[in-house]
Amino acid sequence: MVSFILDTFTVRGPNGNHPCHVTTPARASLSELKDGSWIRLFQLDVARALAAQLVLAADYLHTQGVVHGDLHLGNILLKLTPHFDQLSPERLYEKYGAPEPEPVIHLDGKPLPPGVPSHGIVPIWLGTASEKITLPEARILLTDFGESFSCSNLKELKYESRTPLVIRPPEARFEPDKPLSYASDIWTLACTIWSIIAQRPLFEGFLASEDDMTREHVDTLGMLPLEWWKKWEARGEKFTEDGKPINRNPFRSWRDRFEDSVQQPRQREGMPVLGDDERDAIFDMLRPMLAFRPEERCTTKQILESEWMVRWTLPTYEKIPKSEK
Known about the structure:
Pfam families: Pkinase (PF00069). This protein has helices at residues 30-35, 44-63, 89-96, 171-174, 182-197, 210-221, 226-231, 235-238, 254-268, 276-289, 300-304, 307-318, and strands spanning 5-13, 16-23, 26-29, 66-67, 76-79, 101-103, 119-121, 140-142, 149-150. The protein is of the alpha+beta class. The mean pLDDT is 93.
């Protein structure tokens, strides 16, 4: 479930030397699959299996002393289908389309400078709409370790999170002098699991600021720890001093978000919804993962022992034929 380096080489060209890594090939990211869909949903069994694998992969990294540092749908890929590497070039092009050369041109019509190729090739699309992914296809590869670090290596400690703002853990803003830890992965892991089962992300913000995202956090999870609350200068614009929203519509609570992001879209599309028992189990698992204080968040081991993992997601993942894992 974790990509690894198969080979390395260096490209020496007119624009310099470029070190390259050959990694495990894969299909498309979960983000791209949702972008390729009108309804932006995974089938329920697929969502469960994806979530199970993501927690298993994160647990493996944490066991090895590594914080991923950038967990989100764009860094989770679907593995290739089992017999993909047996396709001939002709069959590959027949199934997925032949390479499409696109001319590289100067916008002002001038000749291309030395070192610029005359054509580029449009990347092949091996994905499909998210709702069309089947359970046997729901095998993940966790990638992009550019922000990863070791908690045990003092020289590698990180204080700045480069995770997208909508899923960035709040301690990155309110405790900038403390190093990030495994708990930062737990926050983004919770946000990513929500995005796997839901149509929309848990915290939303288009071109959002830090204040916008903190408002989303308080709307959803309640008041910040007191010292953070006092430090947040914009709190009075939307909240009373005791954390109540001020005459604001829409105000979307945790349960509101679950209904309008998970249940209602699935009902509209005629897809199965989550039963009350499973919904409550998801809540029981996600809320400790989203504790504001990083030291109060659960660990990957505790997540794997949660009711939702034990009763719903891990058993669904185990239904994938072992020959295809």
